[in-house]
Amino acid sequence: MSTDLPSSGRRLRPLVTSAFACTLLAAAGAHAQPIYKSVDSTGRVTYSQEPIPGAVSVDKVDVTPKVVVDRPAGAGSAAAPNAAAEAKRAETARQNEDFRQRQQAREAQRQQAIDAVNAAERDLDAAQKALVAGQETNQPGDRQGIGGVRSRPTDQYLERVQRLEAAVEAAKKRLAEAQNRLRDVQ
Questions:
Q1: Are 106 and 181 contained in the same domain?
Q2: Which helix (H) or strand (E) holds 58?
Q3: What is the pTM of this model?
Q4: Are residues 35 and 105 in the same domain?
Q5: Fewer CB within 10 Å: N-end or C-end of the chain?
Q6: CA angle at residue 159 from 157 to 165, to 5 degrees?
Q7: What pLDDT digit, counting tens, does each position of 123-139 carry?
Q8: H or E stretch including 100?
Q9: For the chain, how big is the Rg over CA atoms in Å?
Q10: What angle do CA 81, 85, 89 make, to 5 degrees?
Q11: Residues of the domain holding 129
Q12: HSE (CB half, 13 Å, CA atoms) of 157?
């Protein structure tokens, strides 16, 4: 087995040689056959199961797999990894519960803000309807004659309309505040 390539493939030779060597190493480790690295007079490296005749240098490659077992620091017994895993699970469960509670609290705040906006919209609608109804001058005492067929609104009427307009403005302000609170909790 050889990785000889034509001269046009020299750029690919290290990649092919490395891939071939890895394949041989894996196969050799599985079958425990020796692998040889042979270097010819031009510097070409060949990996094979037999030394290449006429090679300038031949080395036997150790392909024995090395097994490394990582243990957590301070883990002196088999119970330590289980305890660490259980502690991690408990911490994750606690974090999940904290998150769920924060989410429920945010949802409750959001629902309260939505309810406040809806109530403020109803109050504004009622105040606007009251203003329209209060501006009607067909109630007794709303107009005062000023001679002939002319009349003017009475002070009582003007005060009533002014109170109703103030109520509409206050309802608009409460609605804007409720909408701002809703934006803050979303």
A1: yes
A2: strand 57-61
A3: 0.48
A4: no
A5: C
A6: 105
A7: 999 999 999 988 886 77
A8: helix 79-135
A9: 45
A10: 170
A11: 100-185
A12: 16
